Amino acid sequence: MAQPIAFGYAGPCASPFEGRLCGDNNDRGKGGLEIPVIDLSMLVSGGPDEKSRMIRDLRMACQEWGFFMLINHGVPESLMSAMEAATREFFDLPEDEKRKYAGKGVVDTVRYGTSFASGTEGGHMFFWRDFVKALVRPQFHSPSKPQGFSNVLAEYCEKMHVMGKVLLEGISESLGLDTEHINKMMDIESSQQLWAANRYPPCPDPESVMGIPAHTDYGLLTFLTQHGTDGLEIFHQDKWVEVHPIKGAILVNTCDHIEIITNGKYKSVLHRAKVNTEKTRISIVSSIGPSPDTFVRPIEELLEEGKEEAKYMGMKYREYFDLMYDPKLFGKSCLEYVKTITTRS
């Protein structure tokens, strides 16, 4: 049986969804561009013309943005609301209850941390957040409290996994591949899936801290809900762009291993979380990646029959994590490291 991948901190600036990091807190985003919107129902049940148009839109979103809003995704709004409510209940638990999950090992399957108390991970005030994380696939793990939390989490993450498989089918088609190409290549049925939630309380001096600094996510796809409160910024066309939530939509971004398997055709994009002075922001994140022992490399069919060189080294998914936690790479980009020497030069 495959062992769980470590998902603790690689260092003061890393999180379970952070691959490439950039610790600069300057240049707050002011852009007002709107990111693409993808209608998942058109990929699932649209007519030939509608599906073809949505595949084209998906290709554009992955090539030009690395982010898109997903609507008509099949995750009930009632379930999304229940997940948010359960998450708020967890963060409202007494501190001693939450500290039961404040582990120190990077393979802890459930983990809690805070920037606001000593004795827990995340004591660097550059961060302004509480967080909880759980490994939910291939084995399911969850906090035991509050009551009913694990049931909501299990249903929510199963919906996210199904949604992820459908999106990867669409991404395969957008690359000119068979529908199941990526799902089979990445062994998605045995995929590593993580869930995390962040709470960012109001901050009296938001210019001096970040919720999470600029980073890319490892894995294939990350799904984020912000529940009506702005706070996420993405780096697009050399500037930071604010992401404004669409009610009921799920924000999706392509991650490091999508960039690797597409040989750089689709990008893993820097993004960061900021804080505000007025209200608490809750973000809920789920990520889907290959199975731990999957050998991840650029897709051969995308290398144009030998005319294009592979830009990334192949390695098992779990080996990517070993690199992330290697002290020699502290503060450096793991994604840049796995680029071939020819590409780096």
Automatic annotation (TrEMBL):
<protein>
    <submittedName>
        <fullName>Uncharacterized protein</fullName>
    </submittedName>
</protein>
